[in-house]
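Recap slide: NADH-quinone oxidoreductase subunit F, sequence and predicted structure.
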Amino acid sequence: MTLASFGPINSSARQEQTHPLTWRLRADGEPVWLDEYRQKNGYAAARKALLEMAQADIVQQVKDSGLKGRGGAGFPTGVKWGLMPADDSITTRYLLCNADEMEPNTWKDRMLMEQLPHQLIEGMLISARALKTYRGYIFLRGEYVDAARNLNRAIDEAKAAGLLGKNILGTGFDFELFVHTGAGRYICGEETALINSLEGRRANPRAKPPFPAAAGVWGKPTCVNNVETLNNVPAIVLNGVDWYKSLARPGSEDMGTKLMGFSGKVKTPGIWEVPFGISARELFEDFAGGMRDGYTLKCWQPGGAGTGFLLPEHLEASMYAGGIGKVGTRMGTGLALAVDTSINMVSLLRNMEEFFARESCGWCTPCRDGLPWNVKILRALEKGQGEPGDIELLEHLVRSCGPGKTFCAHAPGAVEPLGSAIKYFRAEFEAGLA
């Protein structure tokens, strides 16, 4: 089974002007190598950026487009780029691609890297030119073996074609790009933990400030962007700001398109490139086909295991950060999970919290000690051995590990689904009390 077969890619998804991320995908799910990528207008944006545009103009165009990070945090990309120093005397700078996709129920970046490796390379090349960086790293989840192989082959092809290395396109601009496979830690999705790991250190988040733009890899200015984020850059450069903004549905505060999906007991689980502002119901019913026969939707998560649970009535929400925020949680990665009525929420949360507790770096006390306590209590409730006060203690731990209480966003993400599950399904937790 190819990754593309996880979800159908209809003919409209191959239209260059409406589906910039996916229109180049092959129907058979095989990788698009250099010759085919060029036939599909590949590297045209890179030529425009390197030969026709000033570096500051590239940054401004990305900023004006409204492109935001696609890794889950949603920070404006152009603003992040603008934090890099303007001083040309600082010649050592780094561009990092965060490809450590370890959020449970998320595999969008994997599809792009396995099937469209040159699109990521082109995005990084343009970004490097804009940021005046001369070396880049793709920090890749170690388990993504096929992605590593395809990216390395694509890098070799780009080097042979003069699109990476020295004096690219005769402009005097040099850019070297390397794939670095990680050792398998969820915390490396946090950009400063990723930087520490790349340097060969323990993957702990760093105190900020200084931010990576001032002192990142080996103390040098560094910009970290997500895979899907960088894949948007070529189309923005080639087609312009107004076109990019027009892709989103009216009313959406987020611009462009997004890879979104649904998994669980739905009829057609998959990934689709859709406009920001699409309703969750449209994604669930028209794309995922609704629940399989014999199953009923109980609740759903909008974007990975670190987002809160929502009820079926919340499917009316619009899929963009503000739209999902209105119903009480975060957009996250945009790959949703449908939970059916046969699932016990205590068991589901016990499984999730075990993952988050195991992946804690142990740097700060609320996360290091609080998450294992969640697991201990949930295991007791699952066995019907909970004690009076256990649910209140879980709620206390949710607050103690919430935003602003920990060193990084790991613990807040870990307890958000727990807090929402207690809110909507408290009776299932109470059933576990002895």
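The chain is about 40% helix and 10% strand.
The chain has three domains: 3-246, 257-340, 345-430.
(End of recap.)
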